[in-house]
Amino acid sequence: MPMTASTLRRMLSFVRPYRRRLGTVMGLMVLATATGLAYPMVVRSLFDRVIIAHDASAMLPLAGWLVGLATAGFALASAQSFLYTALCARVLFDLRYDLFRHLQRLPLDFFKSTRLAEIVSRAGSDVAEIQNVSTGALISLLSFSLTLVGTIVMLAVLDARLFLVSSFLFPLGFIGARLLRRRVETLARQVREANAEVTGSIMDAFGGVETVRAAAAERVEAGRFVRASGKLVRKVLRFQLVQSLYTGSTQLVIAVNTLVVLWFGSRMALDGSLTWGGLVAFLVYLARLYGPVQGLAGLYLSVQKANAAAARVFELRDRSPEVEPPDAVRLTELRGEVALERVRVAPRPDQPILDGVSLAIPAGSFVAIVGPNGAGKTTLARALLGLAPLAGGRIAIDGVDLARVSLRSLRRRAALVTEEPFLFHASIEENVRYGHPSASRTDVEAALEAAGAARLVERLPEGLATVVGERAAKLSAGERQRIAIARALVGDPRLLVLDDPFGAVDRIDDEEIQAAIRPLVGGRTVVLTTHRVQIARAADRIVVLDRGRVVEEGSHEELLELRGMYARLAA
To answer: Does 1.20.1560.10 match the CATH number of domain 5-317?
Structure first.
């Protein structure tokens, strides 16, 4: 669809903070255009006086003017180019940062339903395309318009008859651009979508490289990449074909126009109604006119390409972010008291994951949540930190409804360790300190000691400086878990949520896990989800979930006596 005024305003809004810089660039452009317009007039004088009239005394002054104008034009163009590049870099930074910050505030459900490659493509090449128009279109429009208007005036001043002859064919170029508009819009959108597919195939193939190799599926992934790349090539070639057709037709119009002017101008020069120098100057101006004419038509096509990119970027930007209420309670201290009252989490109304869960967790207690796969343990763990939106009921932290709590302040004083933790491609120290950059080396070492990871670090040649690799590929599952636990502990959280942290670790027995958990409990509230009963028995209280409901609650011994689900899990 054509670019709307509102879309254009949104794109240009990112240039508004740099109005002064833009004004400087435009001022330099006006001066550079003026020097360029003066150049053919000096050429006319040089041709008529020196070449035709053989006035040698005029050669040196006119040559000096040509050198001076060329030098001034070079200096002005260089300064304009540098300032323009700096302006583009700032606008691109602002565009990407604005989108990045907005993405950070989107609900987690968005990231679960949107392919990462699609997000990367929109935040990368699509944003760059918007920047090209938001700054480039302004500069190009002014440059082309100044040159076009100035050149037209000079052509009319030189000879009105030749000007009328030369202006006859120019509208054909704009008619061609208008006819190709819809095709360009469609192909530009298809190129962007195909590019996102290529990015996605690369990320899938190498993000899950172990899975690919374990399944001997390299050829399958190579086939996916070839198909995606082939589709992109076809779309790009079609787009380039349309662009080439337009460019070729424009060049044909230019060639015919030049021949017509040369034929009429030569006849006028021969009968004395126009000097040969005037004809040369007219042709030079005419040559300068073709650039802006082609540029304005090309700019139209570029704007349509950017429109496709803008639609994709602003579709992300228009998604509603998670917004804290203006009167959100900021937790300066956290005791760790948690209460759930008939909590319901249901991505779909007819398929609740948690259904009427009520639970009281006193501050400083250790509670284990046990249940079979699909019982809702992970959802409950995430809900405690506001990572799973509630469809009903309420969660209170230290007596304050979670809906009224500043989640950022809560998450600064609480921590979550998941079954498959994510570690960044950085050093062990940087991973442990993540989220708490002010933590000292002593704090990091103490957290590693409490997490049982101190010996691991000591064995590594580079110690804390060891880079864990992409997706922490250099570490085992158990080592990744211990680093993740240390990361949770370095901030000394008052509420620690362990979501089946050792569920994926097979080479460690329950006794070792209990020994690893024991140092984490003292002085803080700990909520542990697990499917391993022998781990849960160390908790002060055990809650059994099944199909999103609390079915049993009590100590290990009490639950065994009930001979219910817990007893079956323990068998």
So the answer is: yes
Q: Is the dihedral of CA 300, 302, 303, 308 positive or negative?
A: positive
Task: Give CATH 1.20.1560.10 domain extents, the chain.
Answer: 5-317
Q: What is the pTM of this model?
A: 0.69
Q: Which amino acid is at 98?
A: D
Q: How would you class 157 by CB atoms within 10 Å of its CB: exposed for 0-12, middle for 13-18, buried for 19 or more?
A: exposed
What is the C-alpha separation between 488 and 439, in angstroms, rounded?
A: 12
Q: Tell me how far apart the alpha carbons of residues 382 and 394 are, in angstroms, rounded to a whole number.
A: 14
**Which tokens is 313 given?**
């970027």
pLDDT tens readout for residues 373-404:
889 999 999 999 998 889 999 999 999 999 89
Domain covering 338-570 assigned CATH 3.40.50.2300 in the classification: no
Coil, strand or helix at 128: helix
77, with CB counted inside 10 A (0-12, 13-18, 19+), is: middle
Residue 71, φ and ψ in degrees, nearest 5: -65, -45
DSSP structural state of residue 541: E
Put residue 101 in one of left, alpha, beta given phi > 0 → left and psi -120 to 50 → alpha.
alpha
Question: Tokens standing for 46?
Answer: 């040089």
Specify the DSSP element, H or E, that contains 518. Answer: helix 510-521
What would the pLDDT profile of 425-483 be if each residue is shown by its tens digit? 889 899 999 888 888 999 999 988 888 888 888 888 888 998 887 767 788 888 888 88
Asked if 98 and 105 count as a contact pair (C-beta separation under 8 A), the reply is no
**Residue 552 DSSP SS3:** strand
The C-alpha atoms of residue 180 and residue 177 are separated, in whole angstroms, by 5
Residues in the chain: 571
Write the CA distances from 291 to 78, 288, 547, integer angstroms.
19, 6, 70
Interacting residues of 343 by C-beta distance below 8 A, sequence separation 6+:
354, 356, 357, 358, 380, 383, 390, 392, 393, 394, 395
**Rounded Cα distance, 479 and 70, in Å:** 67
